[in-house]
Amino acid sequence: MSDDKIKEADIEAAERLLAVAYTAQERAQMAGNLEGQIDSAVARRKVELANSVPMSLRFDPRLPGFEMPQAEGVVGSRPDAPLPDSEEDIAFARLPQLGAWIASGALTSRRLTEIYLDRIARFNPQLMCYAMVTTDMALAEADAMDALTAQGKSLGPLHGIPYGVKDLFDTDGIVTGWGAEPYRNRVPAGDARIVTMLRDAGAVLLGKTTVGALAYNDIWYGGVTRNPWNTDEGSSGSSAGSASATAAGLCAFAIGTETLGSITSPCQRCGPTGLRPTFGRVSRAGGMALCWSLDKVGPICRGVEDTALVLAAINGGDPADLCSIHAPFSFDAGRGIEGLKLGYLPEAFGEGATDVDRVALEAAKKLGIEVVEVSLPDLPYGALMNVVYAEAAAAFEHLTLTGADDTLTWQDDGAWPNTFRKARFLSAVDHVQLDRLRYLVMQALDGLFQEVDALIGPFMTGPMLVASNFTGHPCLHLRAGFENLGTRSAASLGEGKLTTGDADTSGKTHRVPQGISLWGRLFDEGTIINLGLALEASLGVADERPRLPE
């Protein structure tokens, strides 16, 4: 503690930062009584806490009385199209078809892997969607899968299928740099749980897809990851490379993570299909922590059914993740959607909604299911954002306290360095109260999903992006159409608000994809995937490909 004593004027000045007001007498009483509190904080800061050290408190999305679904098992479709001559057509095929070709011997895992590696070599310099390509490992894994195929053995629907994993997940002996300059030479000594599970499922690792530095945006130490539909703009983030690579046909699928939009936002911009599973369903062990009570792991794919096949492979409880929840997963591609009740918030399709949003809602109304208006209680949902700031600032406290945050490329007002610094002024009392507000939000969404089986809306529907991430409900985001838009700016947390980037209204426009979101009940991803399949077929826009720059 400094020899300088806390003065009443210091307290009065600090009051403005916390939006509180004390009397002169109250300040005088505190002035001689704060040193112990400050000394305790300083003493704690001397204890170095690695990113892998979790919070002792764990978030559980299940309210009292919750009953876990018991159905388990995945039944996929059985496509039988002949193998095309075009390597591009092969590259853009969906997982059920790729799996069928490999199982029949029409396509080897090595040839498919080489197709993707060739496309990475051609297009990654423009898209910057891979931070590291593991060529030799990928070919060796592909050969191993082909050897099993020759013996009549299959490890499942992902057998021999090449994928990319977001560069937040440890890979043994391979740089895992978290997109951030202080960690660009970080080499872990083991694999993340999800990498192990996908290897056991027969998937072939092509490399590490780029991540916006410390899981935010699309700016990383190698540059800016690009949207393949308009390479003048970033791909959004933070699963920037996973969305860009999947949309561009540089992998069969990819793994992303979401704390607050990091799967759904780049899917909205780049056009693939993303599934953010229920909080706790997929292990985060061996992955970078940003917000322990919010981080989730999910697949980014080219089609709705694909997300079910990947989720089945990565689903499972894990003692190494304190927030992990053992839950069965069930999906049947042939199951109909008859009898489902779909809700929507009418204000989400009013001012600010796009033609694509409204077309998606009308398409849903024509699926032969009941579609009804719903509402949510009037709560300050956006206030929960302070939890994100606090947990993220804690995860990377040492960057702030040592000044290493200055080495990060992105230094805007809404970027992490400024956000982390501001978070030091958040109130611990307010943080506890935010956790109690979170419980009210959990009750609000639980009430909503007692009325309907699923909710449909634009990516930024009212409070749903924030609310559902804090309650842990699953979200499927799929392509719904196209718009002509100017180049969009980066996402931002500036002024304490979440934005996804404004479009330039004066410059050249580009035909870019737009999506729609489906939210579902906790641990009931199968329902929104079946609903998404029906909507995907009705909209008929999922198969268009970007024209990639050579």
TrEMBL record:
Span of domain Amidase: 112-467
Pfam families: Amidase (PF01425)
InterPro entries for this protein: Amidase, Amidase_dom, AS_sf
A GO MF label: glutaminyl-tRNA synthase (glutamine-hydrolyzing) activity
SUPFAM superfamilies the UniProt entry points to: Amidase signature (AS) enzymes
Name of the protein described by the UniProt record: Amidase
Organism: Marimonas arenosa
